[in-house]
Specification:
The chain has 7 helices and 13 strands. It is α+β, with helices and mostly antiparallel strands. Strand 10 and strand 11 form a beta hairpin. It is elongated and about 65 Å long. Pfam families: Acetyltransf_1.
Length: about 280
Amino acid sequence: MYQYQTLEHTSYEQIAECFRAAFSDYYFSADLSAAQLQKRLEMSGVDLAQSYGAFQNGRLVGFLFNTRSVYNGQNAVFDAGTGVVPEHRGKQVFTRLFQFAEQQLARQNVQAYYLEVLQQNRRAIRLYQRLGFSTRREYVVFKGDGQAAQTLPFPVQEQEFSQFEVPAANCRCVDPCFEHTTPVLKRTPQLYRVWYRQAQDGIAAFCVFEQESGAVVQMGYRDLSALGQIFQDLVSKFPAVIVKNVDTSYPEVLELLRSLRFQEVARQYEMSRELQA
């Protein structure tokens, strides 16, 4: 028998233990300590009061980490992490956990649920489709290293994220994923920095990135070459730079990254479904 409830009173030690077990056979390593997992969830804007777990005899065996924000004009939540401990799979744990979460969130006027899934994870995609999710967007994740580094004649300029305003005019801003929208990033603004190149008539390009790792979470440009110069400067300062979730509807940015020897490391789908009260 499983019990389903929010995670707001569950310790990060217990959550991390379940997280490590659930991802022990995943495509990428997820061996995080309680403190590391807590930081990752805070960066994603996860609210444990609106996240849910499946428990058996007091032990956490499955989880849904949720971030809530306004997205595409709706009150929505984003699944920032889902997992079930291997020995509890095949027992409808995730399906019932999602159904429980849906009921709770719909009562709080949440209109839509979003998630991301690796394209090679066909089993998960089929499960989400059975639950009523459909694909909305496709993302590519890139990784760059010193191969793309180049000494630039003019350094980029830097600003704190909390003080930066995205250029409103003549700037092609790459539409970020749910987790990287400005309202979510502003919950922990101290974790991000902005690098930009200035032109005579305004900002030519900018990148918002995690200041510890250099991972790029937002970008925009008027001059594509200026954006490339920022990427090159980032990989000259950090050992490896991840460019997260570039929407495939921006082929010029994909081609720019490839031309700079960034390697494609993953492809994901964004999927969503409406919630029913």
